[in-house]
Write a structure and sequence with these properties.
Blueprint lengths: L1 E3 L3 E6 L5 E7 L3 H14 L3 E7 L2 H14 L6 E3 L3 H9 L3 E2 L20 E2 L4 E8 L21 E2 L7 H10 L6 H10 L8 H10 L4 E5 H9 L4 E4 L6 E3 L3 E4 L5 H12 L1 H9 L28 H19 L2
Parallel strand pairs: 3-4, 3-5, 9-10
Antiparallel strand pairs: 1-2, 2-4, 5-13, 6-13, 7-13, 8-10, 8-11, 8-12
């Protein structure tokens, strides 16, 4: 293990004679190591060198490499679909038409097969079990009783919250009216999922709009929280994987994508505490079956084109 300035952690796995694949990922170091180890066990002929950082930081590094004409990664495995949509628009990604996505919800991968979801991280409604009652829809949150009592991450800060915003703005019964309703009852989105969950667990807020795994883990550890998947649908991020068009190892990169989409790769997702995109793989304890929730997919191509306008509309609603 060695540290690279500005890029955090780099780990090399494999043998000296193996083909080398370079991966940039926003997975946590522990999860990234598990992913690389599991892949390496199946494909010892491919050595993986990986760099971990937040998606925004990785994109900054990648942009600098593009500017310099020296792009290092073969593969990206990051949280932000909008960034991948932008890279796609710029011709930075390689299509993989033969990717093994049979049986997967079409909303979990790019329609042109340039990036592919590897898991489902849905945004639902968390509530404090001591002070709040479960609701069935998003709109049921918008009551005077909940004035200032809903913790909402800001899409100007949180990638999951931005994904949620883009996913619901055109959904009948949710849309911009939901955000206007939040503003009307004194709710101001701020920060990320962590502070929102703490607010709900501590009782400072009755409800929160939070990523599923965080709430389920908190509940399992004894926090007085539970999670609702509203019947009118949930947004989700998929931690997509993409192959860079500049890769010098296209076959090794395809093999890595194949592994993440395989039964073994999806079983690893469940072991790591997230919902697999493969509906035949049993999710972790506390999660519903994938077929029991309504997914609201985000059109990444559209989001790239409307992102500035969406951000400006959001800011105007909340007076930022």
């Amino acid at each position: 293990m060695r540290l690279i300035p500005a890029l955090a952690l780099v780990v090399m796995a494999g043998t000296a004679n193996a083909e080398t694949l370079t991966l940039y990922t926003s997975q946590s170091p522990e999860i990234a190591q598990q992913t690389v180890d599991a892949f390496q066990a199946k494909h010892p002929d491919i050595k993986v060198e990986w760099t971990r950082n937040g998606t925004s930081q990785l994109m900054n590094v990648l942009r600098a490499e593009i500017q310099a004409g020296a792009v290092k990664p073969d593969v990206l495995l990051v949280a932000d679909t909008i960034n991948l949509g932008l890279l796609k628009k710029e011709g930075r990604l390689m299509a993989y038409p033969d990717a093994k996505v049979g049986g997967y919800d079409a909303g979990t991968y790019d329609k042109d097969k340039m990036f592919f979801g590897t898991k489902i991280v849905a945004t639902g409604i968390a509530y404090n079990t001591a002070s709040a009652k479960p609701v069935a829809t998003w709109g049921e949150l918008l009551t005077e009783d909940n004035r200032g009592q809903i913790a909402v991450p800001s899409p100007l800060y949180s990638g999951a919250a931005l994904n949620h915003l883009h996913s619901v703005v055109d959904v009948p019964g949710i849309g911009w009216d939901f955000y206007k309703g939040l503003a009307k009852i004194g709710v101001t989105p701020e920060g990320g999922n962590g502070p929102a969950l703490k607010a709900v667990a501590s009782g400072l807020a009755k409800y929160g709009i939070i990523a599923d795994a965080d709430v389920i883990r908190a509940k399992a550890s004894g926090s007085p929280v539970d999670l609702i998947f509203p019947k009118d649908g949930v947004s989700f991020i998929t931690e997509p994987v993409a192959i860079l068009s500049t890769t010098k190892h296209p076959e090794a990169a395809k093999t890595f994508v194949d592994f993440l989409l395989s039964k073994d790769g999806q079983a690893l997702v469940a072991q790591q505490g997230n919902m697999p995109i493969d509906p035949s793989v049993t999710p972790p304890a506390g999660f519903p079956k994938l077929s029991d929730i309504k997914l609201l997919p985000m059109d990444a191509d559209k989001a790239v084109g409307t992102d500035r306008q969406v951000r400006e509309t959001f800011t105007s609603i909340f007076g930022g």
